[in-house]
Design a protein that fits this description.
About 20% of the residues lie in helices and about 35% in strands. By secondary structure, the chain is of the alpha+beta class. The protein folds into four domains: about 110 residues, Phage tail protein beta-alpha-beta fold (3-Layer(bab) Sandwich); about 60 residues, Ribosomal Protein S8, Chain: A, domain 1 (2-Layer Sandwich), CATH 3.30.1370.120; about 100 residues, no CATH class; about 240 residues, no CATH class. The strands form eight sheets. Strands 15, 20, 21, 22, 27 and 28 form a six-stranded antiparallel β-sheet that branches. Strands 16-17-18-19 form a four-stranded antiparallel β-sheet, with helices on one face. Helix 5 packs across helix 6.
Length: about 650
């Protein structure tokens, strides 16, 4: 007679048969009904045999005696209830499997003790840990042999779900806590390369006059955000300017090979301190050495114009969003600057009374006999009038019609009152400084006891404009940061060194699209003394003064700057030239020369006769060539 498959029925049938036919027969029937099961953390029963007798004994007490005989500590749940009768002799493995099957028990061994629960105590628990930590916990559980068909692990996203006995769940919790702590101590790092399309990955260094300008790249900006060094956070992402030393690095008679290297005395040739030369330890960002305190590394690859980031995988999405926000297409602008010199003295002598007013502002040069009082050398803006300046013209206004201003300026040029010194045009990007420099350099030699130093002196005009485009609905405005430095050499000298005159102007302005900014107020006073004489007679002592004319003149030049920003587009117009190479030969100079006349035949020579024949057939016109498609410009995909 076989036992029923249901565990409760197996247990009741097992107890009834034990009382009726004897303990030995009942145990044999139970062992035949079920086979021993293997669980996670299997109890080390081995080949031990047990000999137990139970008379209406609680199952908890029976299990306590059972595990005491095999020498394994046991922890029995309070929910394990029931009584048992019979004599149990034989292998401990089979008896344990029979008891578990009959009473629907689950035995879990954690490596130190056996835990006995009812099947109803099996449950599930979720652990919010990362994917890498979940894999680490699952790998540890498999190595410890904790998993089977009842005690399982399942990872879903950033969650680990464990199902099994209470002690199994407790062990998984301990493994998960240890995995999180281990991940925090030594996280799993990943490398990611972000390719840039519009921005620069590395810092951009510019030399403007006597200053070295450093514009931070995307890598420096990100590095300053994630760095733990307060000094690096404060200065890495900021634009910096540093003056270039005026003294030229000397050789001390040692040749070019000694530049930047120390001399035997320990000092550096050319006054350098040795920083930045070979042998200087590299920064941590350049070495790439792993640091547990700050494992984040951000590097710029100038060859690919890409930013390389080393960090944990969970933060890579944040880096991707940040790079996408920084690498945006900038607005292209064309900045035109007209440098104008106005001879105010000549304007007064000629009686020129010229005033410009386009409705947004006005300005007047010179003073004619009909000029009203209070308008001389003044800047006229609606609602504001600048007072007259004794030093020269003070002009700062916004002009809405630059073409009309240029036409009036041409009229002044014909009178010799105004002169356009230069009209540079620079294409730049929004928030990127455009620099125009027209200067002269010379070197002053300073002789010392043992060596000679050279100092650089620069004089000229430097114009720096940083435009920024803002859009408010349909209205486009341009904010400009303007810095002007105007210098020139004078006739005066100190120790045979010419004196340099410099004037500087720094301002900000906000104008609308299509308007221009007019800046002025820089005055140059010139005094000229000359003489004219009659040859020979003018050289006679005393009497020669009668044949000489002494002249002395003074003038004042007003320098003005008219800055006009214009929005531009990077979309090139379609060309009508077919695709391919084209070569234009340079002009030889003979293109406009008349062709020689055709030679004439002698009068006694008759033209040759042509035999009559069939009329010539006209060839059909050639079909028009198929239009060649214009090339399309496609963005080059980033390598992946």
């Amino acid at each position: 007679m076989s036992l029923p498959k249901d565990p409760a029925a197996v247990r009741s049938a097992y107890l009834r048969r034990a009382a009726r036919i004897g303990v030995a027969a009942a145990v044999a029937a139970a062992l035949a009904a079920t086979a021993p099961q293997t669980y996670a953390g299997e109890v080390p029963l081995g080949a031990r045999n047990v000999d137990l007798t139970a008379r209406e004994q609680p199952i908890a007490q029976f299990l306590q005696n059972f595990y005491n005989q095999i020498g394994v500590p046991v922890v029995i749940s309070s929910q394990v209830t029931g009584t048992i009768n019979g004599v149990f002799r034989g292998p401990a493995t089979k008896i344990d499997a029979d008891i578990s099957k009959a009473f629907d028990l689950v035995t879990y061994y954690d490596g130190g003790a056996a835990y006995v629960y009812t099947a109803a105590q099996l449950s599930s628990r979720s652990f919010p840990i990362s994917g890498s930590a979940s894999r680490r916990v699952d790998r540890a559980a498999r190595q410890l042999g904790l998993l089977d068909n009842r005690n399982t692990l399942r990872a879903t996203g950033d969650m680990l779900v464990a199902t099994g006995a209470p002690r199994f769940l407790q062990q998984v919790d301990e493994l998960a806590r240890g995995g999180v702590q281990a991940e925090a101590a030594s996280p799993t790092l990943q490398y990611r390369v972000f390719y840039l399309r519009y921005g620069w990955a590395d810092d951009v260094n510019l030399t403007v006059g006597s200053r070295q300008v450093t514009i931070p790249g995307v890598a420096s900006i990100i590095r300053s955000l994630v760095s733990s060094d307060p000094n690096e956070r404060a200065g890495a992402a900021a634009r910096s300017e540093s003056p270039i030393p005026a003294a030229v690095q000397g050789l001390r008679g040692q040749g070019l090979a000694t530049l930047g290297t120390p001399n035997p005395g320990g000092a550096f040739y050319g006054g350098q301190d040795g920083q930045g030369t070979l042998g200087t330890p590299l920064a941590n960002e350049q070495t790439g050495v792993y640091s547990p305190q700050n494992p984040v590394r951000v590097q710029a690859d100038t060859r690919l114009n890409a930013v390389i980031v080393r960090d944990v995988a969970e933060r890579m999405s944040a880096y991707e969003e940040l790079v996408r926000a920084l690498d945006v297409e900038p607005q292209l602008l064309e900045v035109e600057a007209a440098i104008i010199d106005i001879d105010t003295t000549k304007a007064r002598d000629l009686g020129v009374n010229w005033r410009f007013d386009d409705g947004n502002g006005g300005i007047q040069f010179g003073r004619g006999p009909d000029a009203p009082a209070g308008l001389e050398d003044a800047n006229l803006v609606r609602g504001n009038t600048s007072p007259k300046s004794a030093a020269g013209l003070v002009a700062s206004t916004i002009i809405g019609n630059g073409d009309y201003f240029a036409a009036r300026l041409n009229a002044l040029e014909t009178e010799g009152v105004a002169r356009v010194v230069s009209r540079p045009q620079i294409v730049t990007l929004s928030n990127v400084e455009a620099v125009f420099e027209n200067s002269r350099d010379f070197y002053v030699r300073l002789a010392g006891e043992r060596d000679v130093d050279l100092f650089n002196v620069t004089a000229g005009t430097t114009l720096r404009v940083t435009p920024h485009v803002t859009r408010d609905g349909t209205q486009t405005r341009i904010r400009m940061l303007v810095s002007i430095e105007d210098g020139s050499l004078t006739n005066a000298s100190v120790d045979d060194i010419p004196v340099v005159r410099r004037a500087a102007l720094n301002t900000q302005a906000l104008i609308q699209e299509g308007q221009s900014l007019l800046l002025g107020g820089m005055t140059v006073q010139s005094d000229t003394t000359g003489s004219q004489k009659i040859p020979v007679l003018g050289n006679i002592p005393v009497l020669g003064n009668l044949f000489k004319v002494q002249s002395r003149s003074s003038g004042r030049i007003e320098r003005m700057f008219l800055i006009t920003p214009r929005l531009a587009s990077i979309a090139a117009p379609r060309s009508t030239t077919p695709a391919g190479l084209r070569y234009d030969a340079p002009a030889s100079g003979f293109e406009s020369a008349p062709l020689p006349a055709a030679p004439t035949l002698p009068s006694n020579r008759k033209p040759a006769k042509v035999a009559p024949g069939a009329p010539a057939q006209m060839l059909p016109p050639a079909p028009p060539p198929a239009p060649e498609p214009y090339g399309t410009m496609k963005p080059i995909p980033n390598p992946s």
